[in-house]
Fold these 2 entries.
Entry 1:
Amino acid sequence: MKKLFIVLGIVVVFLSGIALFKNLIIKSVVTRAVYGITGAPVHIDRFKLNILSSTIDISGFKMYNPSGFPEGTLVFCPKIKIIYDWDSLFKQKRHFLLVEIELKEMGLTKNKKGNLNVDSLKIVEEPKSFPPTPIQIDLLTLNIGKIVYKDYTVGANPSVRVYDVNRQKSYKGIPTTQQLALLVLAEPMKAAAIKNAKIYGVAMLAGVAVLPVAVVATFIGKDYVQQVIDVRFENLYEISHEVIKHMGTITKDDAMGGVIKANINGTMVALILRKDADNKTEITISARKYMFPKLDIAGGVLYQILDKL
């Protein structure tokens, strides 16, 4: 009997060791993958893959500031829970039934050069260098806590602003890891009405902005975005006017003609609305600064208008 207990003890220790080793390996793979996409250091306190319940539990996820910024945490998620489809783990396209992310705090930092830490991530600076990695997320729930915004352009000691967002948002049908990353990074900023970040335009081009609404977007030319939206002309004009008014200074306001022109941080933005035959509205937004196209600004304006629909 004593030998039996010894053998059972050895088996339990052995299996526990395998489980621990498995989780450590996957944890290392995940941190390297996130670093590869963002270029920012990542730390995870605890990673647990439960095969029996088809769940993944991540505790203490932290992404730190990229190079060129003071030390600090960019994203802190104390809890991330994932329910996955077991069969998809052996396929190229992973299928996640549910992803729940608790984003307790986002630390935005503007360095002395005026650059935002989130705009200096690889996925934002070099979006074309990351071919889409297919996944399938049926439902994403994002719980947003607060944003701490530090601005070092004002002097040696930064100005600090805190935005208590305290909002939950849900999305369906996320098809790539890039869209997931951009959404998690951009949504807290958009919810806090932080203006003119480059990430808005990149997220728009990646298709993140259209996830909550059923619209079809086409991007034409190098300085403007265009989209047909199932919203009445008058309603869309009011929403567009309100968004642009908060982003910059309106220089032309033509409600009858559906034209709004504005100066947004030195970028000249023009918005034009046109009715189509199906009572939908075509919206075109162009942006230029010193005669150079600023597609990221145009996309950012459209991104925030879509969120108000």
Note: The radius of gyration is 23 Å.
Entry 2:
Amino acid sequence: MVIDANTKIAALIKANPAVIDAIASINTHFKKLQNPVLRKIFASRVTIADAAKIGKCDIETFYTKLRPLGFNVSDSQPIQIEHIQRDTAANINYDMLLDVRDDINNGKDPFKKIMQAITTLPKDKVLLLVNSFEPLPLICILKDRGYESEVVEVGSDEIHTYFKKATDELLNTDAHSPEASQFDEIRSGFEGSLKYIDVRQLPMPQPMVTILRTLESLERQTALFVYHKKLPLFLLPELKDRKYEHVVRYTDEGVELIIYKQQ
């Protein structure tokens, strides 16, 4: 069987059940695969790349374990894994808390419980999901449904994932944000008084942390110009609370934001 980073763990196990013990031997994060119930939860939803990120290891570590079992690795370029970093400084407010660590530890699938919570979550509200690993498949599922997420590693077995679905108002502009068509006008108004930062390559939640810390040290009558890979939905309420206004422009590389206070 030819495999690559996008091959599902379930497909590996189906091809050779010895995969279970081979992956479980990588580190303690994968011991759950030896539990039939937990294996059902993870294997069908997780790719090799996802598992490497969850287990905080390189994809090549998986290939080393899988090659002796008869698997051939595709010649395609390897995927670079961006592991989350521990950072408790992203003080994100939330409206609903759901801790599913006991469910996972007791061999229960929390997916239905999580989706029920998401269904009852009002628009523009935030759900904090507490888990023992980064829920990558869930993040992908909810992203397709219009939810943004931020992930914070609080401890080695405590991962906080914040989910929020923006209203149409937030996705475009809000009462405190000029129309995007005014972007160049706002930029011209702060000509010579713009501070530029690029957070596109920073792992979550560093973009939000970096922006807020930069604003704290920003000189008066200076605006902050931010290059970001996406519209930072969790940042917008923070800006509003701090009496900042913003304007957004979408580009091929992501979004550009100008954050400022009225002079």
Note: The CA atoms of residues 26 and 61 lie 8 Å apart.
